[in-house]
């Protein structure tokens, strides 16, 4: 079923929260244990049966294309050394999928980035995957979202319950009753609301299944929150259309790692490394010992930053 879908991965954000590391290195290429974050996202698409991937990049992001290309000199050197394990890892990234690259031009928001995929997608439905959100391979999400889209014909977004103190960082949904398959009809959406006016704590996380009709809506969507063209605003219009197929949500309760925030990025590395057979046995005892020595440390409350999608 999913072989007919294409995946679109917007990766044109400036990544200002990770400066100076992201001055010359795309944040999507920052390593999460021993793979760049964006490789996890492509692997998730491939696991769902999607082999055709468009990555939307900005300036100074040639490293992304290079990562998914073959490197004959490196592969030859590893072959000569007989290092088949590393050779397999290097070859794996270049053989994952058919990777295409296009530029956003200027960072004008997620909605604008998605609109750049119109000629690539054509008249077909497609998947949008944000590189900030890594979904654990043990808790597959895309197959459920694709099934809901097949059943309803509507756009489908991934939702997750978040701490009410964090709703200002997300698009937040107003939803109807939950169906037998766990999906919900989305009645309304608002981008990054203040806690006191948020309609729920169901936040939109970085996975979408969209029909080609979204491009027509994005074409006339005015800049919204942060002065950017918001995908949330386009989905809100689709949800309000009484004659359209509607917008649905799949509430995700599995393991998700947010690599768009510095603290959560570090947490993601620790969580994934601890679960690995080659790293966990050595790392877990050290973390317990290290944590035991933190009892005397006084924590300072974190101050949330105001940001736009282009920053990420």
In short:
The chain has helices spanning 37-47, 62-67, 72-81, 84-95, 110-115, 118-121, 142-152, 213-219, 231-240, 262-275, 280-292, and strands spanning 6-11, 31-32, 35-36, 52-57, 98-103, 126-129, 133-135, 155-161, 171-178, 183-191, 202-210, 247-251, 256-258. The protein is α/β, with parallel strands linked by helices and 312 residues long. The strands form three sheets. It has a nine-stranded mixed beta sheet. A two-stranded antiparallel ribbon has the order 2-3. The protein has a two-stranded antiparallel sheet with strand order 7-13.
List the helices and strands and how they pair.
Elements (H helix, E strand, L loop, with lengths): L5 E6 L19 E2 L2 E2 H11 L4 E6 L4 H6 L4 H10 L2 H12 L2 E6 L6 H6 L2 H4 L4 E4 L3 E3 L6 H11 L2 E7 L9 E8 L4 E9 L10 E9 L2 H7 L11 H10 L6 E5 L4 E3 L3 H14 L4 H13 L20
Parallel strand pairs: 1-4, 1-6, 4-5, 8-12
Antiparallel strand pairs: 2-3, 6-11, 7-13, 8-11, 9-10, 10-12
């Amino acid at each position: 079923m999913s072989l007919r879908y294409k995946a679109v991965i917007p990766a044109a954000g400036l990544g200002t929260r990770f400066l100076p590391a992201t001055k010359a290195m795309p944040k999507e290429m920052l390593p999460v244990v021993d793979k760049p974050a964006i490789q996890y996202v492509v692997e998730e698409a491939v696991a769902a049966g999607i082999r055709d991937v468009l990555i939307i990049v900005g300036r100074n992001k040639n490293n992304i294309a290079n990562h998914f290309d073959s490197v004959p000199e490196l592969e030859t050197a590893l072959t000569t050394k007989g290092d088949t394990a590393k050779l397999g890892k290097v070859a794996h990234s270049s053989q994952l999928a058919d990777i295409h690259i296009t530029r956003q031009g200027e960072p004008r928001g997620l909605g604008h980035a998605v609109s750049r995929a119109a000629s690539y997608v054509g008249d077909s439905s497609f998947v949008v995957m944000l590189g900030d959100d890594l979904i654990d391979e043990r808790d597959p999400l895309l197959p459920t979202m694709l099934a809901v889209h097949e059943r309803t014909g509507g756009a489908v977004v991934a939702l997750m319950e978040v701490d009410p103190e964090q709703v200002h960082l997300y698009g937040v949904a107003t939803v109807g009753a939950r169906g037998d398959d766990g999906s919900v009809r989305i009645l309304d959406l608002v981008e990054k609301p203040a806690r006191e006016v948020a309609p729920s704590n169901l936040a939109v996380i970085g996975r979408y299944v969209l029909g080609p009709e979204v491009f027509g809506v994005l074409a006339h969507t005015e800049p919204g929150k942060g002065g950017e063209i918001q995908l949330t605003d386009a989905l809100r219009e689709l949800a309000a259309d009484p004659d359209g197929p509607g917008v649905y949500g799949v509430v995700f309760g599995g393991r998700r790692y947010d690599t768009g925030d510095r603290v959560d990025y570090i947490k993601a590395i620790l969580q994934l490394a601890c679960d690995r057979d080659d790293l966990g046995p050595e790392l877990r005892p050290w973390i317990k010992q290290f944590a035991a020595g933190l009892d005397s440390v006084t924590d300072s409350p974190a101050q949330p930053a105001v940001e736009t999608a282009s920053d990420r």
